[in-house]
UniProtKB/TrEMBL annotation:
PANTHER family: LACI-RELATED TRANSCRIPTIONAL REPRESSOR (PTHR30146), RIBOSE OPERON REPRESSOR (PTHR30146:SF95). GO terms for molecular function: DNA-binding transcription factor activity; transcription cis-regulatory region binding. Keywords: DNA-binding, Repressor, Transcription, Transcription regulation. Residues 7-75 form the HTH gntR-type domain. This is GntR family transcriptional regulator of arabinose operon.
Length: 383
C-alpha cells in the first residue's frame, strides 16, 4: 500500500507567510494577514493558525502583539533582504548623523513627580553630552503619536516615553520597537510587548500603604484613581491593594475601589460622586494613585467639614506638596522619580551606544518604593 506524505496544514501556513514576506518585499514592522484571514484562506481552525504563527514567532520570522496582530520581525526582514542584520533594525544607509538630541514625551508637567523625573532625565543625559527636548502629550494618545513622529523627524537619536493612560496601544511606540529605534518607556509598560522600561513596583507600593493604614486601625480603606481601570499601572496597584487586604483576612469591598472618574477645575465639588462618597463616611482612609488626586480628596474632605487626619486619612502615590522631602505634608509612596528618570536616561544612552546587553533581551527595571509618613494619616477615629 502506497502512503503519500501529507504536509501538515500549519506548515503550509508557515510556508505561505514566508513566501509572502519574500514576494511582497515586506519589511520589519509590516503586518501579515490576521488569524481570521488565515483561517478563511486555509479553511482551518484557530488552533492550527495559532500553532503556525507561534512557530514563526519562535523562529523570529514574525513578532506577535496581543490585540494588534502579527508583524514581520527585524531578523526576518534582514534575512529576506540578504543583508547583514542592521544595528537596532536599521541598515547603515538609514542611520542618521548624530544630533546629540534625545526626546522626552511626557503627559504633562503639573506636579512635583514630573519635575523630579525630568530633573533626573536631564542630569543623566547632560552628563553624557546629550541635549533634551521635552514634548507634552497632554494625556492624549493622538498628541503622543504626533510627539514621537516629530522627534523622529528632527533627528532625535533616541526617545524616552512616559505613556498616557489609555486602554489601547500607541501604534507609534510599536513602530519604534519594530524599526529598532532606541527608546525606553517610563513608569509603565505595554502588556505582552517586550520593551525597555523602568518603573516603580506598583503592587508593593499599595501594599505598603494598606499595611500602614491597617496598623493605624483602619479597616474601611478605599483606593481611588482618575484613570481608566484597564491601564497597566492602575491594575497593578489595585492588585497590590487587594492582595494586602487578603493577607489581613479582610474581605474586598468593591465599593471601595473607585476608578474611571475625572475631576475638572470647573466642576462643582458638591455634585461629584467622590464628594458624596466621602461625605457618606463609608471609608475612613483613602489611597490615591497620584498626588494631585490626594490633594483633591483633602479639599473635598474639608468641604465636608472633615479634619485630616483626625476624621480621614490619605496616602497618595508621590508627594504632591514639596520638592524638599523635609517639608512634605502628605503621607505618600515614594517612587524615587529622580532616580527613575536618571536610570531611564542612562539605559537609553547605553542602547544608543550599543553598550546594552542585547543577548539578554530588553532591560526591565523595577524600583523598590518606600512609605514616607507625613501629616495626612493617623489612628482611626473611634465611633
Amino acid at each position: 500500500m502506497n502512503v503519500t506524505a501529507r504536509t501538515p496544514l500549519y506548515q503550509k501556513i508557515q510556508q505561505y507567510i514566508r513566501e509572502l514576506i519574500e514576494s511582497e518585499g515586506l519589511k520589519s514592522g509590516d503586518r501579515i494577514p490576521t488569524e481570521k484571514e488565515l483561517m478563511e484562506r486555509f479553511d482551518v481552525s484557530k488552533i492550527t493558525v495559532v500553532k503556525a504563527l507561534t512557530g514563526l514567532a519562535n523562529e523570529n520570522v514574525i513578532s506577535r502583539v496581543p490585540g494588534k496582530g502579527s508583524f514581520v520581525s527585524e531578523l526576518s526582514a534582514a534575512e529576506e533582504a540578504e543583508v547583514p542584520r542592521p544595528v537596532f533594525g536599521r541598515t547603515p544607509e538609514e542611520v542618521k548623523p548624530k544630533t546629540g538630541l534625545i526626546g522626552l514625551v511626557m503627559p504633562s508637567i503639573y506636579d512635583y513627580f514630573a519635575v523630579r523625573l525630568i530633573d533626573g532625565v536631564r542630569r543623566g543625559l547632560s552628563s553624557k553630552g546629550y541635549r533634551t527636548m521635552i514634548l507634552l502629550s497632554e494625556g492624549d494618545l493622538e498628541h503622543e503619536k504626533e510627539a514621537i513622529k516629530t522627534l523622529k523627524q528632527i533627528g532625535a537619536e533616541g526617545i524616552l516615553v512616559f505613556p498616557v493612560d489609555e486602554e489601547h496601544y500607541n501604534d507609534e511606540i510599536l513602530n519604534l520597537k519594530f524599526s529598532g529605534y532606541p527608546f525606553v518607556l517610563i513608569d509603565r509598560f505595554l502588556p505582552g510587548v517586550e520593551t525597555n522600561y523602568i518603573a516603580a513596583d506598583g503592587r508593593l507600593g499599595t501594599r505598603l500603604a494598606v499595611e500602614h493604614l491597617w496598623e493605624l486601625g483602619h479597616r474601611e480603606i478605599a483606593i481611588c484613581s482618575d484613570s481608566p481601570l484597564q491601564t497597566v499601572t492602575v491594575q497593578e496597584r489595585i492588585e497590590g491593594y487587594m492582595d494586602a487586604l487578603k493577607d489581613k483576612g479582610a474581605l474586598i469591598n468593591p465599593a471601595h475601589i473607585i476608578t474611571g472618574f475625572r475631576i475638572h477645575a470647573s466642576d462643582e465639588p458638591e455634585k461629584h460622586p467622590l464628594y458624596r462618597y466621602i461625605r457618606s463616611g463609608l471609608a475612613t482612609a483613602y489611597i490615591t494613585l497620584n498626588g494631585k488626586l490626594g490633594v483633591q480628596i483633602q479639599q473635598m474632605a474639608k468641604r465636608n467639614g472633615l479634619s485630616i487626619p483626625d476624621d480621614l486619612s490619605i496616602v497618595s502615590f508621590d508627594d504632591p506638596t514639596s520638592v524638599v522631602e523635609e517639608l512634605s505634608v502628605f503621607t505618600h509612596i515614594k517612587q524615587f522619580e529622580y532616580e527613575m528618570g536618571l536610570r531611564a536616561a542612562e539605559t537609553l544612552v547605553d542602547i544608543i551606544g550599543e553598550k546594552a546587553d542585547r543577548s539578554g533581551g530588553y532591560t526591565k527595571t523595577l524600583l523598590v518604593p518606600e512609605l514616607v509618613v507625613g501629616r495626612t494619616t493617623g489612628p482611626v477615629k473611634p465611633h
